[in-house]
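Entry 14. Structure prediction run on the chain below.
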Amino acid sequence: MTRFLFRALPLFVLAGAASAGVAQDAAHTVAFKVPGGLPFAVSDQGSFDTPFALAFLPDGRILVTEKPGKLKLRATNGAVKDVAGVPRVAPGGQGGLLDVALAPDFAKSHTIYLSYSEPRPNGRSLALARATLKDGAAPSLQGLRVIFRAGSDGTGEQFGGNIAFSPDRTLLYLSSGERQRFTPAQDPDQALGKVLRLTLDGKPAPGNPQYAAGGVRAETWSLGHRNPYGLAFDKGGRLWEIEMGPKGGDEVNLILPGRNYGWPKVSNGDNYDGTPIPRHAPGDGFEAPKVWWNPSISPGGLIIYSGRLFPAWQGSAFIAALSGQALIRVTLNGDNAAKADQWNMGMRIRDVAQAPDGAIWLLQDGPGGHLMRLTPR
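Output returned:
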C-alpha cells in the first residue's frame, strides 16, 4: 500500500493510490509526497516501475511505458493490465521502452507507435515501431513492425525518442539523441542528434530540406541537437522542442526546417569535465534557444496546453523537469518564449500529458514512480 506523506492538507486532493481497483507494485512503490503552496490539486493515481511516458486513449484510459520493457494499460478505475507483444528492448541507463503515441487515426485503426532502445549486434540503437492495439481482457499488440532505426549502433545513452504528429495528421516527427558521442549531431549522414520528419510508415517525408539527397539527409528536419526529448506543436503549427544541455544549457527551441542548433559546437552550458563550450552568439550560423536554463533542470516531457480546466494557461508550454524536480510553465507568443512558473514538486518529473478532460497528468521518474493528476484547486 502506498504511504501518504503530506502537509498543507487544504491545498491538495491526495486521492488514495491504494484505493479499490488501483494496481500497485508493492516491491517498487515509494512514498508519495507533494510540497505545499502549489496552485493546483494533486491526486496520486498509482505507481509504475520506472515509467517513461504516457498517452491517453480517447475514452480516458492510459498507456504507460516502463523503461525495463513493459507497456501498461490503465483503466479509468485505476486497474492496470500488461499489454502483450511489446518489442524486446535493451534497457539500462537512459535506454529501454521510451515514448508511446497514438496514431492520428487511432479511433479507426487502433495503431500506436513505440520508441525504444533496440538490442543490436553491436550495441543498441533507437528504434521506432508501430502496431495495432488489440483491446479486451488480455490486451496485446498485433502486427508489430519496426519502421525506423537510427543506426550507428554501439554504446552511449541519450536516445531521445519523442514522437509528435504534424497538425495535418499526415507526418511523424521523431527526436534522436546523439548518444553522448558529440560529433554525430553535426554529421548529416548519421541520424543521431537530429529531429527527423517521416511518413506515418517511417519513410523520409517528401518536402524535407534534403529529401532529394536520400539516406539520412532525406529524413532530417533539423540537426545539431544533444538530447532532444519533448516535441509539441502549438496552435499556430510551430514545432517546439526541449533539449538537455551538458552541464547547464538546457533549451527550449523553435524547430525550423534545415536549421542547425549548434551542438556540440555551441551551447549555453559547459562540458561535465569543466571545459568551456562557445556560447550561442548572433551571426554564428546556429539557431539559438528561445529559453535556456543554467544550472540544468533536465527536461523530460513537453505539452502545449489546450484544455479548459486551466483557461489562463491555454497556449503555454509545460515541461517535466528531472533534476529540477519541478513542473515548469513557459509562455509562447508567436516565435518567442519566456519563463513563467517553476513549481517545486519535490520529486523528479519524467513526463507530462493532457487528459481529454483538460487535467494535467505527470509521471514521477524512477522505480515506483507515481502517476499524478493535476486539477484546479
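The first strand starts at residue 4 and ends at 6.
Filed with the rest of this week's runs.
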